[in-house]
Structures are given as structure tokens and as C-alpha cells.
């Protein structure tokens, strides 16, 4: 693999994409409104939900 020119960039790009994805996911989770989370957590308990 070391004989291919420019192959060293792929592990760096993979790590960068992986890191940015999880940082973005963490930002989305921590910025989510508490009221919406509470509302969604009650959905399985509601009997009046129609399919």
C-alpha cells in the first residue's frame, strides 16, 4: 500500500469524517429541546395512538 502515491491521505480523511460525524451528532443531541424529548418518551405509553 505504501507504494501507491497519495495513499496516506485516506486514513486521515476517514478519521476526520468519523470525528466530524460524531461531533455533529453530539451537538445535535445536546441542543435538542427537553420538551420534545419528554413528548417522544411518552409516545409508547399513550393508548390513544392510532396506527
Report on the structure:
The chain is mainly alpha-helical and 51 residues long. The chain contains 2 helices and no strands. The chain starts with 8 loop residues before the first helix and ends in a 10-residue tail after the last helix. The mean pLDDT is 85. The chain is rod-shaped and about 65 Å long.
Key features of this structure:
51 residues; mainly alpha; 2 helices; rod-shaped
Instruction: Note poorly predicted spans.
Output: none
How many helix segments? 2
Structural class: mainly alpha
Coarse morphology: rod-shaped
Number of separate strands = 0
User: Mean of residue pLDDT?
Assistant: 85
Helical content (DSSP H or I, runs of 4+): 55-70%
Q: Biggest sheet, in brief?
A: none
Q: Report the radius of gyration as a whole number of Å.
A: 21 Å
Q: Give the distance, in angstroms, between the N- and C-terminal Cα atoms.
A: 54 Å
What is the percentage of strand-forming residues? under 5%
Instruction: Give me the strand/helix succession.
Output: HH
In short:
By secondary structure, the protein is mainly alpha-helical. The protein contains 2 helices and no strands.
Amino acid at each position: 500500500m505504501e507504494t501507491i502515491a497519495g495513499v496516506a491521505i485516506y486514513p486521515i480523511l476517514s478519521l476526520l469524517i468519523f470525528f466530524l460525524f460524531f461531533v455533529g451528532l453530539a451537538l445535535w443531541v445536546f441542543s435538542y429541546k427537553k420538551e420534545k424529548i419528554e413528548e417522544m418518551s411518552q409516545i409508547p405509553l399513550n393508548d390513544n395512538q392510532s396506527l
